[in-house]
Structure formats: C-alpha cells, structure tokens
Specification:
Strand content: 25-35%
Domain Homeobox: 20-84
Radius of gyration: 33 Å
Shape: globular
Region (Disordered): 1-20, 608-628
DNA-binding region: 22-85
Largest sheet: 11 strands, mixed
Subcellular location: Nucleus
GO biological process, one term: meristem initiation
Amino acid sequence: MEMAVANHRERSSDSMNRHLDSSGKYVRYTAEQVEALERVYAECPKPSSLRRQQLIRECSILANIEPKQIKVWFQNRRCRDKQRKEASRLQSVNRKLSAMNKLLMEENDRLQKQVSQLVCENGYMKQQLTTVVNDPSCESVVTTPQHSLRDANSPAGLLSIAEETLAEFLSKATGTAVDWVQMPGMKPGPDSVGIFAISQRCNGVAARACGLVSLEPMKIAEILKDRPSWFRDCRSLEVFTMFPAGNGGTIELVYMQTYAPTTLAPARDFWTLRYTTSLDNGSFVVCERSLSGSGAGPNAASASQFVRAEMLSSGYLIRPCDGGGSIIHIVDHLNLEAWSVPDVLRPLYESSKVVAQKMTISALRYIRQLAQESNGEVVYGLGRQPAVLRTFSQRLSRGFNDAVNGFGDDGWSTMHCDGAEDIIVAINSTKHLNNISNSLSFLGGVLCAKASMLLQNVPPAVLIRFLREHRSEWADFNVDAYSAATLKAGSFAYPGMRPTRFTGSQIIMPLGHTIEHEEMLEVVRLEGHSLAQEDAFMSRDVHLLQICTGIDENAVGACSELIFAPINEMFPDDAPLVPSGFRVIPVDAKTGDVQDLLTANHRTLDLTSSLEVGPSPENASGNSSSSSSSRCILTIAFQFPFENNLQENVAGMACQYVRSVISSVQRVAMAISPSGISPSLGSKLSPGSPEAVTLAQWISQSYSHHLGSELLTIDSLGSDDSVLKLLWDHQDAILCCSLKPQPVFMFANQAGLDMLETTLVALQDITLEKIFDESGRKAICSDFAKLMQQGFACLPSGICVSTMGRHVSYEQAVAWKVFAASEENNNNLHCLAFSFVNWSFV
C-alpha cells in the first residue's frame, strides 16, 4: 500500500511539473517557472483569472504557457496540499489508534490477571470452607500483616515509605490491587479523552484514567504537580520539605487544603509524602500518600478549620509514546472521612464517581486542553490568549469557593444567620480583599449571603441550563447594576441608585470552551436604560463574566455550576471580580436521608418541601422511593460590595434578594422536575387554568366548530388522555392566551415551548404582543375584530420572537376562540388559541 501511495504521489508530482506547449506536446516546467508559481501560490492559493493573466504579463518566463495551463497547475497544487494534509491527519489518527489499542490490550491483560486472581481466591475460600465444615475443632485465625515501624521524621524512613507508596501505586495503575469497573457513560473510543474506571468494594473511594496526550512526560509531570491550576477544589498546596531520594528522584512533604462543596460540611486537608522518580523502562512516576503519626502536618492553628482526610497511594504514571507524546495513567484513591458530614451528604464523600469527575477526569482533560492549545487547535474570542481566559475561569471559581466556605484566615466572619430560612450572611473587610483587586480601597468590604438546600428529583444540568438561558426569571437587574456600579471607584452607591429599566434582553457572547464543552466562559450583556428623564438616552447595560459547567445530562456524578461576576465593559485582564452563583451536585439516594437532613444541626433548606409535587398526596407518598432516587444539593452564594456606612442596608437587601432567588428556584424546580407539573400526568398546566385534559378537549372542539376541520386525528375509541397527548405532541406550535387587556399566555404544547424557548412556568409572564414584531402586531390588530366576530382568523406568514431574542418564521398562523363548552356561548368564552404552522428559527 505504501508503494502504491508513493507511485501515486510520483505521478501527481510529475503531472504538476509538465505543461502543453504550442505544438500540443507535454513539456516540463523549468525550475525558474516552478519557483515563480510557488511564490504566487504562497500568497494566494486560488488566484482569479485576472490575477493569472497578470502573472503571465509580469513574469516573462511564463509567457509561453497558456492561462489554462496555469489554472491547471494551481488546481493540481491545491490538490497536492490537500493530499498532504489528509495523509498527515491519517498518520496522526493511526498513531492515536495504535496507542489506544496498546492501552486496551494492557487493560485486557490486567482484567485477565484479575479474573485468574479471583478464581484462585474462590478456590482457596472453598477449600477453607470445606476444612472448617469437616473439622469443627478448627479455629479460624485471622492474621494481620505487620509493617515494620518506620520513622517518618528521618530521610531513611521517608525513603522506605516512598518505595512502598510507589509499589502500591503501580499495582493500582497497571495491576489488580483495586477492583476497577468502567465509569458509567464513559466508553473508550478513538474520539474519547481516555479510559476511565472507578473502584468497587475497596477502602475509600478511587478512580483511574488512562489516555494519550501529545506532550512530553516531564511537561505533564510539572502540570499535574501544580494541582491548584487544574483541581478547582484545591485551595492551596504548599511544599514544606524537599530532598533528593538518592536514586535520581525527589521526596516532598506536601500540605494541601481543599474547599468544601457546600455550606453544610467542613473542608478537608491532606498531609502527604510525594515521591517523584523514573523507572528503568523510561517511564516517569509521581506518587503520593498521606503521612500519619507524630509531626503530621503544620501547626494545629492553621488546620483547625479542616477535617484531616487521607490520601491512599495515588499518582501519575507517564510513559513516552512511539512517535511523540505520552501515555498517562492517573490514580486517585482517597478516604474523605464521611463520618464528619450529615448522612444526606455522605454519598458525596463515598462516591468514586464524584472523585473521578472532580479530580481524575479533570486532570486528563486539562492536559489535553493544554496540548491542543499548544498545537493551535483552540480558538478563543475577543482576541484573548488561552492562559488569560483560563485565569479568569480560575478566579471566578476560586472566588465563589471562598464565599461558600468563608474561611476565617481569609477575613470572613459570620454577621448573622436568618433562622427562618437558614440564610447565612458573612462579611469580609477591605483589608482582606487583595485577592479581588488592589483598586477597591474605597469599599468597606464584601458581604455574602449564602444557603444550601436539598432538591428532590431535579436534574442538575437542566436546572443550570435554565438559570443560564432565562436569567430574567430569577435575577433582579437593579441588583446586578448595583454590584457593577459599586465596583467602579467614585460611582453612585446604594441606596442612591438611579432607576433603571431592564429590557429583558440578555446577549451571551462566548469567549472560549474546553475541548468537550464541559465548561464555557462567556460575557453576558444585560441591556438596560435609565428611567430618569435627563439620562433617557444613556445606556445602562451591565456586563457579566460567567462560567457555566456540567450541562451535559449524561455525565455521571458531574457537578453543575453557574458562576458570574460584574465586569467592566472594557474587559481588562486585571478586572476586579466578586463572583456569585449556583452549584448543583447530584447525590446518590439512601433511605432516610431526607429526614436526617431536615433534622440535622447544620444549616440547610429543602426547597421542594413546600411544593405540591405529583397528582396527589397518595401518589407522592407511594412514589417516595423513586423520587428520592434523584436528588441534588443546591448551594447559592451572592456577594455584594458595600461602603462602610451602608453595611446594614446592604445586608438587608442581600437577604431579601436571596429569598427572592430561592422563591424563583422553587418555581423552576417544580417546572422541570419529572414528578412536578407535567402534562402527561394530567395535572394543572398553570395556575388558574383548567385541567390539562379538559383544556385539550376545549381547544380541539372549538377548532372543529369554527374552521370545519379537525385539529387532531382522534380515534373514535380514544380516551380523553389521548386528546391531550396528541395536542402536546402536535408538530405545530399551539398556544393559548388569556382574555385580558394585556393578554398573557397560559398554555403551550411542546412545540410552542420550543418555539418560544421557555417553560410552562415562565410562559405565564409572556404577553401576546411581546412575541410579535411590528408587522405581526399590525396583522393581529387588523384581524382582531374579525376574530371576535366570526370566531377565527387566518394570519399571513410572518416573524415572531422567542424569549431568547431569536427570530422565528412561520408560514401561517390560525387564531380561534376557545369555549368552555361545545355550544357557542359568549358567556363561556375561555381564551384565545393560536397555531403557528411550519415554524422554524431564522
């Protein structure tokens, strides 16, 4: 095959080097002619006809060549370039597949060894069981391996611990020391980041990853050892001692602090030994484990806010790969001391899937991201370098984590706790805000209002996606405007803000995203205008820098976040950031956990406890086991800068605002919960509307009465529920609006919700005139009298607008009156219905 490819290339090259002369014979291009053509090709690979004629006129050595032959030369040259690029791509894919195949073969060998080991253990256990049954006098003796005592304070003792850690880590990375199973939803393949596995039935929680990275081993080791750069939950990492191991490696004593994901549990810290060395086969190893005994870590004062967790033998095995790049094995094995958290939170600390998502998979993804950036494969917005945008993401995440945890050594102190709704208000003075900006000396400090709560049967990815796309459903524009204005020196401050009207429009401008789109960095522009007459024409737009993570519903154990901070419209690299936002973490179910959470002495709030979920209390209680199978912890934290004389005012405003956000999340959670308001359950579709089945019958009967045709194709034996199902699944967007001076929508089928890009709950805030453009409003006004007189009206094709500001075209719109009974009686007129036929986004 290689010979055939070489022959093809030779023929292609030969055809490029020849042209027809005036006598019709093929003549080779001279070296000077090829050089002249190559110069033009470098400037413009596809020159126009005029450019080719100009080339012949200007270059005398090409005068004897026909313009058509010049055109053919450029065509062949582009074809050759394309073939070279394709060949290079195929070689790269081939190398990657070969490396992945090698990894899979190694994994297969490891699994075969594990099977053999299990078979031997099974045979041994059977033999022991037979011995015990046949000889009752036999006493089973359990022996515990005795490890020689090692002095962790001496180099020799530390070297002994390091060698043992290395052996244990290698047995986990490539051996059978841990019973690994494939990570759910993470199947290996040529386009996957790597091969991921989690532990089962082992001490603590463990995760493992294998993958191919186009970076050199030493570079990868440096990146992974800098854990705060890629592990978002890492607060700090400090190397206390470092000395050579005598075999070309180094031993380090490391103290690491990590953030707590919620306000319900204390943070964790680790005191570990880290051993870096190389193996005889050229591989590079960084392994780590916790130290215990005397002198375990820094002084007690610095670690008093943390619970000491244990890191079992973990690390990174990095092997150089043939043809460049490296094959990397990552193992994270932790004991997070779940005893110290409420029972409802223990699944977070006992889940290998959570460790895999937060640490193992994040590490491999981060390295892959850097590799692609170094190869120029990643393009970012606003002309910013990847490192600058990555720093912004890290600052947003770190600022949010600092607010959620509120460490005393960062200057945070609790101001008060609202016992009624468990909202914690903490305060941090200016002297501790150097991590935000040095330009905020005029501020008195930053105040944070935060709360954590349990949500029942709410998909985290769906909730975060809704909060991102429909900000007007939960946010107050004036609060955003206040935070943005307070960060500007010399600006007006609360409570003397100028009244501003939010237009309801938000524009999301993407800046960058990770290779698998699990994290997006973007700028959000909220459009506002001053209500003061003297500033009527002055824009009051607010800009937010925002990261959104975990919106893939198929990611198992992934945390979903929406974190944002006001930013200057000039978007400077050193802009001060005061982040706020939401974090939603899925929690595996355990019986009785809900009650444990509500009665725990920790601050928590159950948003769904006050909601009527499901068709009836009986059904709700009967489905308690299924509903508890999908739960999550939502943490909200909002930060507000304030001036010294306005601390109490801002604290009151912050509590009131967070309460309103909690109320909005209640409505959203009820709307998107599978056990909440859903047309398939026959429950009410919106407050004040009739039951879904009855409304569907009224819509269908009224359409038939007015237009003389059937809206739905209903079987004569079909049930009432089938009418609702047909209406809900109808391809045309069907919406109903109330008969008020300013009509608002009260129902929409699935196509209608998709067209307006909204939900059933949010639908109630959308007015009829809001979705039409100027021509559409004129058409409705002109035909409204006809609609009310004859009961229906057909509107021409036009354009309407979704809640996200996107334009939607439709071929025809039909409007008709919906009566609450089959006979036409104006006293029973219930609402107006609209059907948008063949709609699509422009």
